[in-house]
Amino acid sequence: MVENFLDFINRAGSIVITSHESPDGDAVCSEIGLYKLLLHLKKDTVILNSDRAEEKYDFLNTDRYIAQVNLRKPEIPEEYSLIVVDTHPFNIGKAGDLLRDKAGEIFVIDHHEDSYSDHYEGIHDSSASSTCQLVYQMMEELKFQPDLETAQALFSGIVYDTGSFQYKKTTDETFRIGGNLVRIGVDPFMIHNHLDQSNSKAFLVLQMEVMKTLEFFHGDRVTSLTMTKETLARSGARYEEAQPLINLPLICRDVEVSLLFKESEEGVKRCSVRSKGNFDCYELANKYRGGGHRTAAGFKISGSFEEIKAEVLEELGRFFS
Ligand SMILES: [Mn+2]
Known about the structure:
By secondary structure, this protein is an alpha/beta fold. It has 12 helices and 12 strands. Strands 3-2-1-4-5-6 form a 6-stranded parallel β-sheet.
């Protein structure tokens, strides 16, 4: 699995690692893991993202490793090869044009169902639970033993992307890796405390406000939630904090698909889709040039929420009729 990676980094001078916009747990944690691996391989490496990671990952010292691209005064290396993790190179946010245009070669490490990633050289395994899982497997092949900080990052990313070792792509391999990371010294309860019990008060207020928009469709099998930028501003929460809201309706027995229409502070609109497995979220998102997995996907919206919501509900109606 790592041969093409080794060839790539041998050809590369400096390396820039990046990931998707609004980077989630798997994105930032796989970046940190890969960064540590590249340091070990004596490569000059920086992590540059379009957006900041959620505050709750600060315990992993993300600030020490990860910088945001300042578009007015971008500080990027003169020459570099680009490694994109947890997405494809056309989903890396507002710094994307800059990072892609100046890059020499591009390498992709991803576990999404996107066919885009296949067009690039890289490591692409859509059966993997997370990009952190892929990064750990690369480390094993390269005989690199992660230190505690790196192990904590990889464990956090796996926990995030598997819903604490429960989602569909969780396998014995995921548990094997989790076990190895615990053996290095990771304390799962400490990670749970940081990831699940460290949300802001504003997030709790946002959750309450967004839940007021809950609607049921198609015999209660589909729900929708809406979060406008006004709701976001009133709550005082940050856009990145809204990510878990989509999972709330799925706690109900009858609900099979949850839709969240959300708008960022800058007015960028997105639709997130989650399912319990029967409905293929990726197939829906793909129609709108989005991406993801069978049970979790999303796409950007250019029109109004009302228009796209009507369209998506009609689409879902065909499946649930
Ligand atoms: Mn991921």
